[in-house]
């Protein structure tokens, strides 16, 4: 994509519109003092930015929990109280953007930036364990977390558990080694909409604490499973022909630009690469429903980079390079654009391992 000197980070995010609250994929460029965003025309970024967010005096909220079906949103509020909602394609990507934007906002305050880096590196979930697995185990009738009626300020919360009960359970189930790690993991479960606070104490902490203080290891702070967990299960059941292909381990995901089969127009899609079974699915990131708009088995697929000089055969529109092509076993051709040569190479390598 076009070079602007002093770029700290760039990539796709999905932005909520100001007037009509629809969501659109935009190409974001983070500079030291502002965040620019560009519209895509064909497969190419427009030369002039569609808008800019001035970072001086900006506040950032991450995670932003205002959209239940979009748990990966960052909220920016400018000095003039304009709010921007930006969605990433994964937790890691969201946290990386939040860290870099916060770093730019606090560029003159190195201590705050150091503290952010410490917080980011404090705990990593082992790669062989997913939050979904933890939540499934929490629901286990014999070894899961016990849901009991709990009282707070005269209100009874029928099916809930205390913060300290969840911390104890995470340690005894060997997901973490310490209470601090358990609190960080419990915060992640809340961020990703698997659990939610109930009652005044836990709700207040989530609203006002930073990441490390959002979850309370306390026998008076109450939590329960979020409805979205049950909804996610039922929406997966509706997809029954696809359950098997969506059950694989996620190996890689990210925003890529794909050429349509019929109209040959270029659209940003959220691609998810899964192993066992090996499938590549793509989702429309502007829509809320969590079902793929397309996908295919990788068995017998061919994947290759396309030359950057000139427009390759089969490609329409004003494309900007970093293209690759996947040919399925049934001879369907997919033309996909990454945002850099390095990203293209990573995707090709990851897909080749599964073909």
UniProtKB/TrEMBL annotation:
Membrane-topology descriptor: Peripheral membrane protein
Pfam families in alphabetical order: DEP, PH
Intracellular or extracellular location(s): Cell projection, Lamellipodium membrane; Cytoplasm, Cytoskeleton
Gene3D superfamilies the UniProt entry points to: Pleckstrin-homology domain (PH domain)/Phosphotyrosine-binding domain (PTB), Winged helix-like DNA-binding domain superfamily/Winged helix DNA-binding domain
GO biological process: actin cytoskeleton organization; intracellular signal transduction
A GO CC term assigned to this protein in UniProt: cytoskeleton
Residues of the PH domain: 6-106, 249-355
Domain DEP, first and last residues per copy: 141-227
The entry's keywords: Acetylation, Cell membrane, Cell projection, Cytoplasm, Cytoskeleton, Membrane, Phosphoprotein, Repeat
Protein name: Pleckstrin-2
Native organism: Mauremys mutica
